[in-house]
Amino acid sequence: MFKKSFQFLLLFFACTLHAQQAGLIDSLRRVLKNTTSDTARCNTFNHLIDVVGEKNEQARLNEQYKQYSQASLKKTKESDPLYKFFSRHLANAFNNSAVLANQDGNYEKALGDNNTGLKIRQDIHDLDGVSQSLNNIGFIYFEHGNIAKAFEYLEKSLKIRLQLKDKRTIAEAYNNMAGLYDSQGDTARAHELFEKSLQIRREIKDKTGLASSLSNLAAFYDDQGNTVKALEYYKESLLINEQLNNKSIIATVYNNVGQIYLHKPDFDSAMTYFQRSYSIYNQLQNNEGMAYSLQNLASLMYYKKDYSKVIEYGEQSLKISQALGFPELIGASTSLLSRVYKKLNKPARALEMYELFIRMRDSLSNKANREAALRAQFQYDFEKKEVIIKEKQEQERILAYEKNSRMKIIIGFVIGGLLLVVIFSISIYNRLKITQKQKTIIEEQKQLVDEHQKEILDSINYAKRLQEAIFPPLEEIKKYLPEHFILYLPKDIVAGDFYWFEQKDDHVFIAAADCTGHGVPGALVSVVCSNALNRTVLEFGLTDPGQILDKTRELVVSTFAKSGDNNVKDGMDISLCCIHTKTNEVLWAGANNPLWYLQNNILCEIKADKQPIGKTENAKPFTTHRVQLNKNDQLYIFTDGFSDQFGGPKGKKFKYKQLNDILVSSAQKQMSQQKEILHSAFIEWKGKLEQVDDVCVIGIKIH
C-alpha cells in the first residue's frame, strides 16, 4: 500500500495548480500575443503558467518563458534596474522546469535546474528566491534518501526565512522540516513543527498552506493509529483544497483517505476514494501519482479476491513504474502480481513476477550498499588527509617550541633575574595556548566522530527499511490467522530474528527464526534465510515442514558456499508450523527451537531436532510432527531471546520455565492481551540491564 505521508511545498507553481479559468487564460494569451513590452511578456508568461492546469501545456509555455527571459537578460546591462527583474524571471523558469522534471521522476534534471536557479538568485542577492531554491533542493535529496543533505539545505532555507521575518515562508519551512523529522521517526519533534506551521497559517489566513498543514497532521495521526483524528483533518483539508481547486493535492488526500477506509475495512469507500485519486492524476498527467493510485486499487482488489482486477490495475502500475524507473514501486507491483498469478495457476507468469520482485529488492539493497561504500571511502580519505596535516602541524609546532625554548634560556642567562618573571609569564601563556589548541583539536575530532556515527546510523536505518521489506504484511497474516500475536523486539536497529509467513491452498505456514548473530550481520543472514524459505515453498512447491527445512538448509549452505570460505557456518534456528485451515491439523518441524501448544489447559511441548539450518557435520533430515488441534487450542513458537534475557533481582536468565508459567496463566485472555503481558514481563525483568538478544514470540489461537 502506498501513501504520501506529508506534503513538501515545491515553490512555486507546482503546488498551486488552479482551475483552468477559460476567460482568464484566453485574456492572458491575448496579452502575450499583442504586447511588445519585455516586462509585460515575462509577467504574463509567469501568470499564465500558474493558471494553466494541463502539464504538457505548462512545460511548453515554461520553455518559451525561459528562452524569452534569457534573451531579455542578454540585452540588459547589469547596471540596469531591469537586470534583476529578468534574472528573477529566468530563475523562476528554471524552478518551474525543476518541479516538472521532479514530477516525471527525472531527479538529475530537477537537481540541475534547481542549482542553476539558485546560482542566479544568489548572484542578484534575491534572498527570498534563494530560500525557495534551497527548499526545493532539500526535497530532492530527501527523495533520494540523503537525509543529511536534506536537513542541511532545509535548515539553510529556514535560517533565511527567519531573517526575512516572512510568516508565510516560515510556516512552509516548519512544514518541510517536520516532514523530515517524521520520516526519521522523531514523532515528537515532527508533531511540534506541524502544529507550529498550522498555527501560523491559521493566523495569516493562508488557505493553500493551511490545507497542506491539515493534510500533514492527518497523515501524522494516521501513522499514530488515530484514524478518527486523521479523517477529521483530511476532510477539513479537502474542503479548502476544493475551494482552491488544488487538484494534485486533492488527489493525494483522496489516496490517503482511501487507505484509512481500506484498513477499517470499508472497501466501498476505499474504492471510491482511490478511483477519485486516479481520475485526477490521470487528468493532470501525473505518472507517479497514477502509478501509486493503481497499485492501491490492485491491493484493494486483492483483499476483495477480484484477481482479474488485481492483474488489470497491477500491470498498469507496473508499466508506469518501469517507465519512471521506481524500483520500490516495481517491487510492490510484482510482489502482488506474483501471488495472484500463483493463485490463478499461472506458474510461468508468477515466477516471472517473483524474479522481477527479487531483482528490484536486490537493486534497492545494492544501491544502499554502493552509497554506504562511497560515503565510507570519502570519510576514510578525509580522515587520512586530516591525520597527515595534523602530524605535519604538530612537528612544526614542536620544532618552533624547541627553538623558542632555547632562545629563552640564552636570554635568561644574559638578562638575569628580572626577565625570569617575563619568561614565566610567556610559559604560562604558551601553556594556555597549547591547552586551547588541544581543546580545539579534541572538539574537531569529536565532531568528526559524531558525523561518522550519524552516517553509520543513516545507513543502518536504511538497512532496517530493506529488512522490513522481507517481512510479511501484518494484514495478510491477520486475514488467515485472525487471532494471533507477534511480539518482535530487535536488540539493535536491525535484527537476526525474523518471522515468516506464506499461504498455499488450504495450508498456512508461519515460522519464528533466529539467525546467526544480531544487528547488521544477523540481518544480512536473515535475508538469505528468508529468501531460501520463499524459494522452497513458492519455487519448489514443498508443503511438508521437515522437507521445507531440508531444502532450506541446502539453499542456505549453497549460498554461503559461494563466498569461497568452506568454514562459514552461518544459518538459523527455526520453529516452522504448517496449519491446515479446514481440519486444524498442524504439521511442525524445528531446528533447535521447539513447539508449545495448549490443549485442555495443559501446555505440551514437541522438541526440535538438535541441528541448525546451516553447514553442520552429520546433518540428518528434519522430522515432521503431526498434532490434531481443536477450536480455541493455542500454539506458540519462539526464539531463545526471551528466555536468555538477564534481569530480575539477581540478574539471572529468565528461562523457559517462567515463560511457560506466563503463557499458562494468561491462556484464557485474548491474544493481544497475552502479547502485552509478555511484553510487560520482559521489560520488568530486564529492568536497566541491556537487552542481550533479539526477541520473537508468536502465539496463535485455532479458530
Note down, in words, how this protein is organized.
By secondary structure, the chain is α+β, with helices and mostly antiparallel strands. Among the domains are: 368-467; 473-701, Phosphatase 2c, domain 1 (4-Layer Sandwich). It contains 23 helices and 13 strands. It has helices spanning 22-34, 38-51, 55-74, 82-103, 107-123, 127-143, 147-164, 167-183, 187-204, 207-223, 227-244, 247-263, 267-284, 287-303, 307-324, 327-343, 347-415, 418-468, 474-480, 519-539, 545-561, 655-665, 671-686, and strands at 484-489, 497-504, 507-515, 571-580, 585-591, 595-599, 602-606, 613-614, 625-628, 634-638, 646-647, 652-653, 695-701. Strands 2, 3, 4, 5, 8 and 9 form a 6-stranded antiparallel sheet that branches. Strand 4 (571-580) and strand 5 form a beta hairpin. The two termini are 28 Å apart. Mean pLDDT is 84; it is low at 1-20 and 368-387.
SSE arrangement:
Elements: H1 22-34, H2 38-51, H3 55-74, H4 82-103, H5 107-123, H6 127-143, H7 147-164, H8 167-183, H9 187-204, H10 207-223, H11 227-244, H12 247-263, H13 267-284, H14 287-303, H15 307-324, H16 327-343, H17 347-415, H18 418-468, H19 474-480, E1 484-489, E2 497-504, E3 507-515, H20 519-539, H21 545-561, E4 571-580, E5 585-591, E6 595-599, E7 602-606, E8 613-614, E9 625-628, E10 634-638, E11 646-647, E12 652-653, H22 655-665, H23 671-686, E13 695-701
Antiparallel strand pairs: 1-13, 2-3, 3-4, 4-5, 4-8, 5-9, 6-7, 6-10, 10-13, 11-12
Helix pairs in contact: 1-2, 2-3, 2-4, 3-4, 4-5, 4-6, 5-6, 6-7, 7-8, 8-9, 8-10, 9-10, 10-11, 10-12, 11-12, 12-13, 12-14, 13-14, 14-15, 14-16, 15-16, 16-17, 17-18, 18-20, 20-21
